[in-house]
Amino acid sequence: xxxxxxxGMKTIRTLSGAAAPIRARxxxxxxxxxxxxxxxxxxxxxxxxxxxxxxxxKMMASEAMVETMVRQKVDTIFGIVGSxxxxxxxxxxxxxxxxxxxxxxQNAAHMADGYSRISGKHGVCTAQNGxxxxxxxxxxxxxxxxxxPVVIMTPExxxxxxxxxxxxxxxxxxxFEPITKYQGHVNNPxxxxxxxxxxxxxxxxxxxxxxxxxxxxxxYHEGMYQIPAxxxxxxxxxxxxxxxxxVDLIKNAKNPVILAGGGVTMAGAEDEVGELASLLSAxxxxxxxxxxxxxxxxxxxxxxLGYQGSQAAMYSLREADVVLALGTRxxxxxxxxxxxxxxxxxxAKVIQVEADSRRIGTSKKVDVGICGxxxxxxxxxxxxxxxxxxxxxxxxxxxxxxAQFAERKAAWQMKLDDITYADVEACTDRIRPRQxxxxxxxxxxxxxxxxxxxxxxxxxxxxxxxxxxxxxSMLAAMTFGNCGYAFPAAMGAKVAAPHRNCVAYVGxxxxxxxLNEVMTCIRENVPTTAVVFNNGQWGAEKKNQVLWFxxxxxxxxxxxxxxxxxxxRSMFAEGITCTHVDQVTDALSQATKEPRRRQNYGDRxxxxxxxxxxxxxxxxxxxxxxxxxx
Length: 630
Known about the structure:
The protein has 630 residues and is α/β, with parallel strands linked by helices. Strands 1, 16, 17, 18, 19, 20 and 21 form a 7-stranded mixed sheet that branches. A 6-stranded parallel sheet has the order 4-3-5-6-8-7, with helices on both faces. Strands 12-11-10-13-14-15 form a 6-stranded parallel sheet, sandwiched between helices. The termini are close together. It is 33% helix and 16% strand. The relative contact order is 0.12.
């Protein structure tokens, strides 16, 4: 594991003189805000709104953009410093915006993704035009398929030199076109506030990344700007006809099953979906990588579908005559056959509730499509069914169905235990992955957030991850499936929720793409834990070579003659190595405990007291070195 405990957040002064534009406030103050300090307190209401909220005021275009961010309640931006946006950057501290400097721009995008999914607010990232911006692509694509409201601020080459092939020039808009919901290009500096605001509004209303593209010379334009208010469209349960059609199908269903997706968590609809399930005594399966869509303590929780998911969930879905797909686009990857079973029901009627009309019926045939907010839709369906004068068919066989469901849950838990602790032919001196995952499950405290990377062991964690609390708690790269996601996403989650433990599950292959951010954790005081499964291979790809290529291993074997724990300690983080499964639960508890203070390293650490933690799983193979295999 790599855990990077820090000294925590500090509170700085409340903004003063908020009625004046930012530049005027900076000029009037001799104090300099600390670099990358936590955000200042911005009033939640606008009872005393500044003048530039109500009428045009002269300011720089960079001020107009930052003032727009302030009005959208942005308090953190992830990125790497660059000359292209330095005028705006100079305003961030006074605006109460924390600029969190990272090691690589892809990780900044992943941090913004994790931040947005946990906080429910915009995640924002920025970088230098050209190479800095192109490094965002993978992170933005992951955010797109995770439906995360991430805003990427992309300064581009100046207007007087664009097209000449100058330094760090690239046409940035086409690159992000297929992985953003909206691209706002500032084609005139006087439109800076207008287009900036639109990017933030659309990112939230359409749940996905947007791009704010700004020629770098436009930041220095001076003009009259009025800062627009955020636009928050009213949500609805869906069309009356589609809701009535859904009620009719549900009333006649004898074996309804609910399939809860990520939209349930995004909408905070766990209670409403749980009430609907209780009314119908309908098992609740959750979609792949959305194990947090329903608290595991709910008596009707069946577990996740998808790779290495719950057989109780799969068998319940297989025998459904009506499937209520709530807050899910019904991804084909998440319903692939498992354990030799093609469990997705071919004869069931399907009701899909989805906020994005373009995703209704796209991947799977649906009988009733409801374009609406899942929280409101679930409540409307419950009320309509409860007040119906005609009987609900599934009430007649409720006792039998619940007995069968209980048997399925018990059978799956027994089978999972058998798989976990089976006496299989394996190296006896190494920790077995499933046993490590079970031990980690025991070590996770309530309200923990877990972020998983792509790969064999991380994907198998789908069998073990369950959350006995409401709210967003599981992060993954979703169907984009890129390596290098878990740790920066967990860091973004930690910035959003400093009071919660944030743990990343990472294989040793993918860890090479993100271990540099341990330095960011220490520099920026972001206490995050990463569990590094050091098994010396690209496991998922090696499995393909085992199955289809006669055990010929090309490029999948990793020789790791080092200790990841020692590498973490060299960055002033905490490092723990596990050589036996009995150590894993305690090691995770140690890695995620309250930070302890370390000695002051003087100029090398800029005067900060550092705390850190790194836990890897393995065994001692070389005297004096700690590294391992899982």
